[in-house]
Amino acid sequence: MISSTDGAVTAAPLRTGFRWLQLGMGIVCMAMIANLQYGWTLFVDPIDHAHHWGRAAIQLAFTIFVVTETWLVPVEAWFVDKYGPRIVIMFGGVMIALSWVLNSYADSLPLLYTAAVIGGIGAGAVYGTCVGNALKWFPDRRGLAAGATAAGFGAGAALTVVPIAAMIASSGYQQAFLTFGIGQGVIVFVLAFFIQPPRLSIPPKKKQLNLPQTKIDFTPPQVLRAPIFWIMYLVFVMVASGGLMTAAQIAPIAHDFKIADTPVSLAGFQMAALTFAISLDRIFDGFGRPFFGFVSDTIGRENTMFIAFGTAALMLLTLSAYGHVPLVFVLATAVYFGVFGEIYSLFPATCGDTFGSKFATTNNGMLYTAKGTASLLVPLASVISTAYGWKAVFVVAVALNATAALMALFVIKPLRRSFILGKEAESANPATANAETRAKTGTA
C-alpha cells in the first residue's frame, strides 16, 4: 500500500483485471444492504399486526432510513476521500447489522426509528463508497460501472425475498430481522478488507459527441454553485419519489387491491401475486441498472433518461387503471422497476461526466441526497391514498415522471453541454478567467 499526498489510505495498482474484481466486490456489498430498503415492505404489515402502530407510523421509519442513508452520504464520502473506502465500508457493515438486530427487539416506535437511523447511516456508508469507487475505476464506462454497482442494491433483495417471507411466516418477523441482519453485516465487513481505490487518475475517453465529458475536476463547492447540478437534483427528486413510494407501499397496495395472495402463473412459475411481484421487481430493477447504464454510454445520458422516464410514466398509468388485475400488477410493477432503477446508474454517471473523477465520491454523494428529499413524499402517499385512493397517488407519480422525461431532453441536455464546453473554454483561456475574477473582486 502507498500513502497519498493528502493522507488518504494507500491505493491499489492500476491493473486491467483488478478493477473488475473491485467492481464485483462492490456489487456484493450493495446486495447485502438491499433488503434494508427493498425488503422493508415485507415487514410493514407483520409489525402492524403485532403492535397496531398503523402503517403511516411504521412507514415513517422507512422515510427516516432513506433520509439518513442519503443526506449523510456527502459526510461519509469525505471520510472516503480522507481515509479510503475500507474503513467506511467496515463501519457500514457493523451499522446495518446493528440496525436489524434492534428491529428484531423493537417494542416501541422510538426504538424502531432509532434502528432506521442506524441502518441509514450504515447503508449510506456502503452505497456512497461503492458507487464512488466504481466511478473512479471506470471513467471510460461510467454508465455500465455505476449501473452494475447499483444493480447489487436493486437486485440484491431478489435472492432473499422468498426466504425472508418464508421465515416471517414460520418464525416471525423478529427472527427474520435478526438472522438476515447479522448475515448481511458480516459479509460486508469481511469484503471491506479487500476494497481499494485506484492509485492513478484514469482519464476519461470522449467517445462521441452525444456523451460529453469534462476534462476538469470540479470541487464540491464549485458543483454546488452550478445551476445544472440543481436542475439534475430536481429531476432526480421527481423520479425517485414515485419509485420509493412504490417500493415502500407495494405490499399495502397489493393488500388494498385484494390481490396479494392471489396465485399468478407466468413462464411456468406460480406464486402469490405480491411475492411474485417483489421477486420480479428486484430482478428487473437489477437488470435495468447496468443495461440502461450501458445504453447511456452509447446513445447519451439524457436520451436514455427520456426513454426510461417515459416508460415509467406509462407503467404507473397502467397500474392506476388495471392494477387490481393480478397478472397486470405483477408485470407492470416489474417493467416499472426495470426502468426506475436506472436513475441510480444514470445520475452518478452524468455527475461524473459533468464534474470529473477526482471528487466523484463526494459530488455524487451530494446529488444522491435527492433520494432522501424524495423519501419525504412516501408518508404523503399513505395520506393521499387514504383520502382519495391509490389511483390519485399513481396519477401524481405519472405527472412527475412525464415532466422529468421532457426536462431530461430539453433542459438538462443543452444546459449540461453548455456548462462543460463553457468551463473548458474558460480553462483554455486563463487570461479571460483572470480578468473576470479581477472584475468580480474589484482588484486591479
From TrEMBL:
Pfam families xrefs: MFS_1
Record's keyword terms, sorted: Membrane, Transmembrane, Transmembrane helix
TM ranges: 20-40, 60-80, 87-106, 112-132, 144-169, 175-195, 228-251, 263-284, 305-322, 328-347, 368-388, 394-412
Superkingdom of origin organism: Bacteria
Record flagged with keyword Ligase: no
Location of the Major facilitator superfamily (MFS) profile domain: 1-416
Family matches, as InterPro entries: MFS, MFS_dom, MFS_trans_sf, Oxa/Form_antiport, Proton-linked_MCT
PANTHER family assigned to the protein according to its UniProt record, in alphabetical order: MFS DOMAIN-CONTAINING PROTEIN, MONOCARBOXYLATE TRANSPORTER
Protein name per its UniProtKB record: Oxalate/formate MFS antiporter
Species per Swiss-Prot/TrEMBL record: Bradyrhizobium campsiandrae
Lineage of source species: Bacteria, Pseudomonadati, Pseudomonadota, Alphaproteobacteria, Hyphomicrobiales
Gene giving rise to this polypeptide: oxlT
